[in-house]
Amino acid sequence: MTDSQRILITGAGRRLGKVLAQHYLDNGWQVLAHFNSACELAHHAALKTVQADLSDPGAVGRMCEWLVQQGPVNAVIHNASCFIADADAADLARHYEQHQRVHVTAPARITAALSDQWAEGAAMISISDIYADIPNQRFAAYCASKAGLQNWSLSMAQRLKGRVRVNVIQPGPVQFLPQHDAAYRERVLSQSLTGRELGYGAIVQACDYLLSAEAVCGTVMRVDGGRFVANRYDQTFSD
C-alpha cells in the first residue's frame, strides 16, 4: 500500500466506518470520509471529510460534486446505514423512502459520480447484512433496502467488469452496541457458530481481503460468526 491510494468510506464518522477509516489511514491510504451528523475521526494529513445526509438528494448531489474534485479513487466502501424499526415510523412511506435513499439511491449516485475516476485495479465493497437474505419482520424497511443494496452491488459487478471489482459483505452480530443487555447478547451469540463477539476487526479483515483479492468479484461474503447457517428454527428474530 502506498500513499497514492485513495479510498472513499461512507458512514465513516463513528462505529464501523470510523474503525475502517482509521485502519486505512494507519496503512498509508488517503481517506475520503463521509459522515452524516458527527465525525469522531481525529485530524490527519491524509484525511478529508465530507458531511452529507444521504437521505437528502440535494446533499448527495453536493457530495458527488465534491468527490469529482478529489482525483482518482482506488477503493470505495459503501458503509453508511440507517437502522430504524418499522414500529417507530410515524410516516411509513417516508420511512421506506429514507432507507431506500440511504442504502440504494445514494450509493448508486456516488458510484455514478465516480465513473471517470476509477484508478486501475479499483475495487468497491458494499456493506449489506445477513438480514438481506433472512429478514426480520420488525425491520422490514431496513431488510428490504439492504437486499436492494446487495442486488444493486452485484449488478454493478456486471456493469463495471474489467474496471472495478465489486463485492458485498454481510455482517452479522460482530459488534454489540451499549444498549444491548447481557440477555440479548447471550441469545444472539447462541445463534452463531463461533459463539463470541468478533468485533469490528472482523469486517476490517474482510475488507482488506476483498480489496486485494484480484480474482474475487461479484461475491457475497458473510462475516457473521456462522449465524447464517446456525439453527434457523431458533432464529425467529423477535428482537
Descriptive report:
With 239 residues, the chain is of the alpha/beta class. The chain has a single domain, classed as Rossmann fold (3-Layer(aba) Sandwich), CATH 3.40.50.720. Helix content is 36%, strand content 18%. The chain contains 6 helices and 7 strands, in the order βαββαβαβαβααβ. It has helices at residues 15-26, 57-67, 92-113, 140-159, 182-190, 201-212, and strands at residues 6-9, 30-35, 47-51, 73-78, 118-127, 164-171, 220-223. Strands 3-2-1-4-5-6-7 form a 7-stranded parallel β-sheet, sandwiched between helices. Helix 2 (57-67) packs parallel to helix 3 (92-113) and helix 3 (92-113) runs parallel beside helix 4. The longest helix has 22 residues, at 92-113. The model has no long low-confidence stretch (mean pLDDT 91).
Class per helix and strand makeup: alpha/beta
SSE string, helices as H and strands as E: EHEEHEHEHEHHE
The main pleated sheet reads as: 7 strands, parallel
Gyration radius over CA: 17 Å
Helix tally equals 6
Summarize the structure.
The chain has 239 residues and is of the alpha/beta class. It has helices at residues 15-26, 57-67, 92-113, 140-159, 182-190, 201-212, and strands at 6-9, 30-35, 47-51, 73-78, 118-127, 164-171, 220-223.
Give the arrangement of secondary structure elements.
Elements: E1 6-9, H1 15-26, E2 30-35, E3 47-51, H2 57-67, E4 73-78, H3 92-113, E5 118-127, H4 140-159, E6 164-171, H5 182-190, H6 201-212, E7 220-223
Parallel strand pairs: 1-2, 1-4, 2-3, 4-5, 5-6, 6-7
